[in-house]
Amino acid sequence: MERLAVYCGSSFGASEAYKEAAVQLGKELARRNITLVYGGSSNGLMGAVADTVLSEGGKAIGVIPKLLEEREIAHKGLTELHTVETMHERKAKMMDLADGFIVLPGGTGTLEEFFEVFTWGQIGLHQKPCGLLNIEHYYDPLIHLFEHMIEQKFLQEKFRTMLIAEEQPDILIGKFSSYEPPSIKSFK
Known about the structure:
The protein has helices at residues 16-31, 44-55, 66-69, 87-97, 108-122, 140-151, 169-176; strands spanning 3-7, 35-38, 60-65, 80-84, 101-103, 130-133, 163-166. By secondary structure, it is an alpha/beta fold. Strands 4-3-2-1-5-6-7 form a seven-stranded parallel beta sheet, sandwiched between helices. Helix 1 links the parallel strand 1 (3-7) and strand 2. The longest helix is centred in the first third of the chain and has 16 residues, at 16-31. 40% of the residues are buried. The model has no long low-confidence stretch (mean pLDDT 95).
């Protein structure tokens, strides 16, 4: 893996553990010489991951739409910053740049980004791993929802392996290296 996209909140959330996890992830990316691809903000968990990667000697690529460049306060110290027109262009650019996707705690925007790359993987637009950094069990309800979708036959069983959830960044990234994508979604 040369580049990993990280989706996360532009705020720090309610628990200091979320920021600590963002810092741990940033250190792990830099240690493994993996370039960070993320939303380009200097705020919240987004900024914490980028600041850590950069302070540890790593590389960070931001992708930010013009609409949010001022509002999210675009990070000024990145290796590269791509300014795009729309949120859709941001997501498409991040997907193209990345070899896999990690999701830290965040809100609806973070989930929307995760669901899009997960769905794109199901239909064969990419064969890249998608992982949840499940800090303090933040994503347990989502993991249970996936189980429910499988049980209720709205998500095919073979896609269970696409959802990689771990509490430690090093373990999550380690699982990415052995990821085997399932066959694409069928309607039979």
